[in-house]
Amino acid sequence: MTWWGVSLPNYPMREIGRPMDTEAIKRHAFENQGIVVAKVDDPRLSWVDREELKRIGSRLYGEKRS
Known about the structure:
two-stranded antiparallel ribbon; 66 residues
């Protein structure tokens, strides 16, 4: 997509003043880039899934600061 000759990135856009659909952006990131964005306390995840996310986050980024 181009705008005034400038190439725009390939990700969901929104109009100014309209709420951003963050779930659509997360879905797009996963489908196109293999990037997963998830909150550790997401109620859609089981306890086991949340603990696994915490473990992976700690391994990649270090222990969470208090």
